[in-house]
Structure formats: C-alpha cells, structure tokens
C-alpha cells in the first residue's frame, strides 16, 4: 500500500472528490467502510457503483457490517436510478468470495487487464509520440 492519509483526504474529500465512502461505527468505534465510485455501463445503458474497498475491522466481523454497508449502497444506487454494483475479489480470497456469494452477488467470467504505475506512464508516452505514428 502506497497511499497516504493526505492522498485519501485530497481525492475523497477535496474539491474534486473521486470516490465516496460509507463508514460504519459501533459505539463510536470504526467498524468498517465501503469505498466506491460511480460507473456507467454502455452495455446495460445504466449507471451503477464500483466498490473499490470493503473492509470490516476484525473486532466487528460476524456482525454483518459488510452486508449492511453493501445493502446501504444498493439502496442508494437503486434510488439514484442505477442498476448494478460491481467489485473484484482476489482469486485467493476464498472467504470474501463465499461472503459475496452468500449475499447473492453473481460472479462473471471477465478477466481484468490493467496498466499500473510505470506501465501506464510508458504506454501513455507523450503527445509527440502520437503525432509521429
């Protein structure tokens, strides 16, 4: 993990928020969070939400905090005219996969490809590169 609290403050709570966060508290203690951002599907022709992070503090696991956070998000998405929520789970995180299946989420067969860090910088090149190709 390379993000800092300043990164999170700037990008989530600054002038141009890039994500939204639902926070769960129990007796004024942090119990969990759901960090998400709006997305749009041209295939479906409707908006939705992409869950980047769903986290439940180990002291509060087993209390359905994660399910409650996702249910709250589902209601907000529905009430704003959206039709879906997406997220990704690491292949080795069997516990999370079971959780999402238990609450009724469906898994698709899409493979995820990404540019990240240096590979993004290299691929982006500069504008001069594009003008010569």
UniProtKB/TrEMBL annotation:
PROSITE patterns: GNAT (PS51186). Residues 1-121 form the N-acetyltransferase domain. InterPro entries: Acyl_CoA_acyltransferase, Diverse_Substrate_AcTransf, GNAT_dom. Gene3D superfamilies: 3.40.630.30. CDD domains: NAT_SF. Transmembrane segments: none annotated. Keywords: Acyltransferase, Transferase. The keyword Acyltransferase applies. This is GNAT family N-acetyltransferase.
